[in-house]
Design a protein that fits this description.
The protein is α/β, with parallel strands linked by helices. The protein has a single domain, classed as 3-Layer(aba) Sandwich (Rossmann fold), CATH 3.40.50.150. Helix content is 32%, strand content 31%. It contains 7 helices and 7 strands. The chain has helices spanning 2-9, 22-28, 45-52, 64-77, 110-123, 140-145, 161-167, and strands at residues 35-39, 56-61, 82-85, 98-104, 124-135, 171-185, 189-202. It has a 7-stranded mixed sheet with strand order 3-2-1-4-5-7-6. Helix 3 (45-52) links the parallel strand 1 (35-39) and strand 2. The longest helix has 14 residues, at 64-77. It starts with a helix and ends with a strand.
């Protein structure tokens, strides 16, 4: 898996563009800037945007190529981010630390996902927000017609409302919706797609 992402992010072009995810951009407008975590951050587009909005940003992923692209983008935009390269099953997250956690198209194997989501809940401060956009289980119909839409082809790695409600039942649900959108995020997220969006807040 690490080799796959290093190859994808090793290209000169940004695989998912340099502009932030539209849902994240809008969601951050509703939350007071503080300390935010971006797991599975890829090439840094969302982390850099958050830094531009005044957030203190921590990010990580398993790709050295992604880290290099993220730091290059941060330098270009004249902001600072902290980006670590680490395997997800080795991540040690401090508890009650982050004002927000942003999961943007972060898809995990089913046998790993729930435990990982629990780590993220624990890392949130009381009052902190979890922001998520991912491909829904309905998305298989879209990426089978248009591979450029991207996303996992294993339905167990996709999301539905019940999965998110189960994983984040300790949070107060502020938003949960599935909708069809037209993604324009670089060459690998391009076209009509079915996404699921979630915002939860920790007591």
């Amino acid at each position: 898996m690490k080799e796959f992402w290093n190859e994808r992010y090793g290209a000169s072009e940004y695989a998912y563009g340099t502009a932030p995810n539209a849902f994240l951009k809008e969601s951050l407008r509703q939350v007071t800037p503080g300390h935010i975590l971006f797991p599975a951050e890829g090439e840094g587009r969302n982390a850099v945007h958050a830094a531009q909005q005044g957030w203190q940003v921590d990010a990580f992923d398993l790709s050295e190529a992604g880290q290099q692209k993220a730091y290059a983008l941060a330098t270009d935009k004249q902001v600072n981010i902290q980006y670590d390269v680490v395997n997800f099953n080795e991540v040690q997250l401090p508890k009650d630390t982050y004002d927000a956690v942003a999961l943007i198209f972060a898809h995990f194997p089913a046998n790993f996902r729930a435990d990982w989501h629990q780590k993220l809940i624990d890392a949130l401060k009381p009052g902190g927000h979890l922001l998520l956009e991912a491909f829904s289980k309905d998305h298989l119909a879209f990426n089978s017609k248009n591979p450029a839409a991207g996303g996992p082809k294993n339905i167990e790695m996709l999301y539905d409302a019940n999965t998110l409600r189960d994983d984040f039942d300790q949070l107060n649900e502020l938003l949960l919706e599935t909708k069809v959108v037209h993604l324009q995020e670089g060459p690998y997220h391009h076209g009509e797609s079915s996404v699921i969006r979630y915002i939860g807040q920790k007591d």
